[in-house]
Amino acid sequence: FFNDKNSLFVEKTMSKKDTFTLTDNSTGQTWDMPSRTGAMGNRLIDIKSLYGRTGVLTYDPGFTSTASCKSDITFINGTEGVLLHRGYSIDELAEHSDYMDTCYLLLYGELPT
Q1: Residue 111 needs a FRET pair 20 to 30 A away by CA distance; which of 31, 62, 67, 91 works?
Q2: Is 61 helix (H, G, I), strand (E, B) or coil?
Q3: 18-76: per-residue pLDDT in tens?
Q4: Tens digits of per-residue pLDDT, 2-22?
Q5: Contact call for residues 30 and 21 (beta carbons, < 8 A)
């Protein structure tokens, strides 16, 4: 379900096709920003160096288009109402697992047998 051993991002060597080009239309300057693959297969633009390289910040009210962190444990998509822990939906865990099972899952990456 998750790529790269439950990691939110798949790290790889960046090639030109693994980038997005950002253009400042007022100056004509361009910057290549690396892209990544998210756990759910969606493409992401890695903007961690954006401010340092461009002096520009992003504006995303409500963080509707922002992945806030890289997580090996949790995936959240608030728009779709998705909350996963280690690939299991929170609904599934609540219905079929108890507190100790869920703690084990979070600590060891799998449900106890």
Answers
A1: 67
A2: helix
A3: 899 999 999 999 999 998 887 777 788 988 899 999 999 988 887 777 776 777 788 88
A4: 334 444 444 445 566 789 999
A5: yes
Any bridge partners for residue 38, and if so which?
Answer: 9
Hey, what are 52's tokens? 């340092």
Q: Report the relative pairing of strands 82-85 and 43-45 from DSSP bridges.
A: unpaired
CA–CA separation, 16 vs 62, rounded Å? 31
Q: Please tell me the pTM assigned to this model.
A: 0.54
At 72, list the tokens.
């090996």
How far is Cα of residue 5 from the mean position of the Cα atoms in its chain?
14
33 closest CA partner among 25, 43, 21: 21
Do residues 32 and 18 make contact, with C-beta atoms less than 8 angstroms apart?
no
Q: Which residue has the tokens 């992945």?
A: 67
Helices marked H in the chain = 50-54, 90-96, 99-108
Look at the block and give the residue holding tokens 């909350």: 83
